[in-house]
Specification:
seven-stranded mixed β-sheet, alpha+beta, eight-stranded mixed β-sheet, disordered N terminus, single chain, elongated
């Protein structure tokens, strides 16, 4: 959790807006005086006005150091309301963990103030998403449900809490949906003409795979381009990643790499040399040679790499079937790449060549029915592509996903994780050792299209539609 959070300046919207509604600022309580103000507002609302608690409304969440309290104040500095949000408290094996499931509570607004409740709820949603939350719930008193409904919340269930009728409601977090829409959703329509050839887009059984079997041979080819802004900003890291992502593509199909081809542009020789440093460092680390390529100077930064590998039995992404167990094999070592926190996890730059080879040969040694490496679309988006290629749907059990200690669930499920492989196979299949990576069963393929996240309370959050890429079944 970040140490400080900037104040939210919130435009207050109500159905019957007063003629002179004061500006409301919502900020995170940091000082003892601010926390005391929040406690007073809660006491006035829940103890004195509503009589829900006696003698006070404190609970275990107040003792959770991850809990966040937000306060609303007017232009004169008067405190008008407060709300609290924190990770859902869990039992058993998940006790104490933050699974990216948070709950808002203790929404208290001073009497005869207008629009403050909606300002606080909006700010709580924004803060939850900034913390990497993927599910955000609240137990709402029935008389306040209309407010949450206007703000886009959805009802999950009716319930009774503290002897009063409530509704369990949820804020639909669309972080995964937005990521996949940005990175993958247009592929089918854009690439449709390539599919007119029998071997196009990988050919029958391999459409949409990370690499493509080369017809008439045991070769597998994969190619990736690095985002130009990343090449410009960090050319050595871009060179390293260009090798990493292509070798991961080969690894996902069980292919042993034999060589690389590069193609890059740079404004001058000095900049080109920095790209080559990254490429050559990765080439030495994996012991895979750069066979040749193309270099152009005096142009904007660009970089792409093609990798060639061999296997007589390529593993498809579309080989899964309903009922297959989904596993994630991920290297949890390393940390966030400097300058890419929440976006790129660097687990490879400190690994030995032997460790990199263990990771890269995992799929070949395991021989699953289906496999796909986690890249731009994150864990959930990649699972959606595997399910789409397999002509089925998928459920991901959030509590079973292996996650690094210093990554939020939301960031981990939507970042580029360095090395992570999703595989699908029979429930009794035993995966091979993965060297420094860990393998954990964390979901299943289903007959229900799309991808859902399943939480410890048994509820499923529908996250992705069936058409992740639009390429359809392989």
């Amino acid at each position: 959790m970040t140490a400080t959070v900037p104040a939210f300046d919130v435009e207050v919207l109500t159905r019957a807006r007063p003629a002179a509604l004061p500006a409301v600022t919502v900020l995170r309580a940091e000082t003892p005086a601010e926390h005391a103000a929040a406690r007073r507002l809660r006491h006035e609302t829940f103890v004195l006005e509503q009589g829900l608690f006696a003698p006070d409304d404190r609970d275990d969440t107040d003792d959770d150091d991850r809990a966040v309290t937000l306060l609303a104040r007017d232009a004169g500095g008067a405190w008008l309301g407060t709300v609290r949000l924190a990770p859902q408290q869990l039992d058993g094996a998940t006790a104490g963990r933050d699974l990216g499931w948070w709950t808002g509570s203790r929404l208290a607004v001073r009497s005869r103030t207008h629009g403050v409740g909606s300002a606080l709820v909006r700010a709580a949603c924004a803060h939850a998403e900034s913390e990497g939350v993927l599910r955000f719930d609240a137990h709402v008193q029935r008389q306040h449900a209309a407010l949450f409904d206007r703000l886009g919340w959805q009802v999950l269930a009716a319930e009774t809490r503290y002897g009063h009728p409530h509704l369990l409601m949820t804020w639909p977090v669309d972080r995964v949906t937005r990521l996949v829409a940005r990175t993958k959703a247009s592929l089918g329509a854009t690439l449709a003409r390539f599919a007119e050839h029998p071997a196009g887009l990988g050919g029958q059984g391999f459409r949409g795979d990370d690499g493509a079997p080369v017809p008439g041979s045991d070769l597998v080819a994969a190619t990736d381009a690095i985002v130009p802004s990343m090449v410009e900003r960090d050319p050595e890291w871009a060179g390293w990643c260009a090798v990493l992502v292509n070798l991961n593509d080969l690894a996902a199909m069980g292919a042993e790499p034999v060589g690389l081809l590069d193609s890059f542009g740079a404004r001058d020789q000095s900049f080109a040399t920095r790209i080559v440093h990254g490429l050559s460092a990765a080439s030495r680390a994996w012991q895979v040679p750069v066979l040749g390529g193309h270099t152009q100077l005096g142009v904007p930064a660009s970089l792409s790499v093609t990798a060639l590998g061999r296997t007589p039995r390529p593993v498809p992404a579309g080989g899964g079937q309903p009922g297959h167990r989904v596993s994630l094999t991920a290297d949890l070592g390393g940390g966030w790449r400097r300058g890419y926190r929440g976006l790129q996890w660097d687990s490879s730059s400190d690994r030995t060549t032997a460790e990199l080879h263990e990771l890269g040969s995992f799929v070949a040694r395991t021989g699953p029915a289906a496999a796909k490496d986690v890249s731009m679309a994150g864990v959930v988006g990649t699972l959606g592509m595997l399910a789409e290629a397999s002509g089925c749907g998928a459920i991901l059990d959030v509590a079973d996903v292996p996650v690094p200690a210093h990554a939020s669930m939301g960031d981990w499920l939507t970042c580029f994780p360095g090395f992570a492989m999703l595989t699908a196979d029979r429930g009794d299949a035993v995966p091979a050792p993965a060297g420094p990576a860990v393998t954990r069963g964390c979901g299943e393929l289903t007959t229900t299209p799309g991808v859902s996240l399943r939480w410890p309370d048994g509820r499923c959050t529908a996250t992705l539609s069936p058409d992740v890429t639009g390429l359809g079944p392989a």
